[in-house]
């Protein structure tokens, strides 16, 4: 090496750190970069391409908190020709209020009626019990058979008598009252002119009796000054006042 001239020695020795741009022509480098970018884009596209079986991530449904049960609204029961439905009282709960034992009321109502009748007697008034509890068959005769005998339409008959299953008399709490001194007024609106009716107006509420069908009553039943009902305990009160909330037939 010492025999080679210095100028030639420097030219013959290769440089160790040669860049890519010096080894390859610039056009080739540009083509390579373009190919790399194409290959890179293709790889990224493959990564983003959905597989044949997509992964499904299930989202749990939100838990529902049970709400407390609301009080059910009772379904209104329609009346028939202005009369409301009533159940027939069990015979075991009835007690006689007449001397012959044929006129019956529920025990609580019978006890109060006897007290009321005795109080009226002390005041010189005669309360006559005309009718108390009635069975379905008895009411069927009073409505249908009497309607036929009198050649009445059902609507007209319903103004003075309830169809079977719709009479307050079924409950054992209702009673028809007359004046023992003026029997001609029994079961007629003229009863309102008697001393018995006037006494009832002033004293019946003390014994928990009230007039069922006053003039212009909302049920459209004819005025019946003789027809009274007992509302002196929870069952009797519910029997009549719950029934009044029932839907009326138009």
Automatic annotation (TrEMBL):
> What is the superkingdom listed in this entry's lineage?
Bacteria
For this entry, list what GO says about its biological process. Answer: proteolysis
The reply on keyword Membrane is yes
Arranged from A to Z, the UniProt key words for this protein are: Carboxypeptidase, Hydrolase, Membrane, Protease, Transmembrane, Transmembrane helix
Which residue ranges have biased composition labelled Pro residues? 63-75
TM annotation in the entry: 24-45
Annotated D-alanyl-D-alanine carboxypeptidase-like core domain ranges read 103-233
As one GO molecular function, the record gives: carboxypeptidase activity
Name by which UniProt lists this protein: D-alanyl-D-alanine carboxypeptidase
């Amino acid at each position: 090496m010492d025999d080679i001239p210095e100028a030639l020695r420097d030219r013959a020795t290769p440089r160790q750190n040669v860049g890519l741009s010096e080894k390859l022509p610039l056009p080739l480098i540009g083509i390579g970069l373009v190919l790399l970018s194409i290959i890179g884009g293709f790889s990224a596209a493959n990564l983003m391409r959905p597989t044949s079986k997509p992964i499904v991530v299930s989202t749990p449904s939100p838990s529902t908190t049970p709400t407390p049960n609301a009080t059910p609204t009772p379904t209104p029961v329609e009346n028939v020709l202005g009369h409301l439905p009533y159940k027939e009282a069990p015979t075991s709960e009835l007690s006689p209020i007449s001397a012959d034992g044929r006129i019956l009321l529920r025990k609580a109502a019978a006890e109060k009626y006897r007290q009321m009748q005795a109080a009226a007697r002390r005041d010189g008034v005669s309360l006559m019990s005309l009718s108390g509890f009635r069975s379905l068959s008895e009411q069927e005769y009073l409505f249908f058979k009497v309607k036929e005998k009198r050649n009445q339409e059902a609507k007209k008959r319903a103004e003075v008598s309830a169809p079977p299953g719709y009479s307050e008399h079924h409950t054992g709490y209702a009673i028809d009252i007359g004046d023992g001194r003026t029997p001609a007024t029994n079961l007629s609106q003229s009863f309102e002119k008697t001393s018995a009716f006037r006494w009832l107006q002033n004293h019946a509420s003390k014994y928990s009796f009230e007039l069922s069908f006053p003039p212009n009553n909302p049920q459209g039943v004819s005025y019946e000054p003789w027809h009274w009902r007992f509302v002196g305990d929870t069952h009797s009160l519910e029997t009549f006042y719950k029934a009044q909330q029932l839907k009326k037939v138009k």
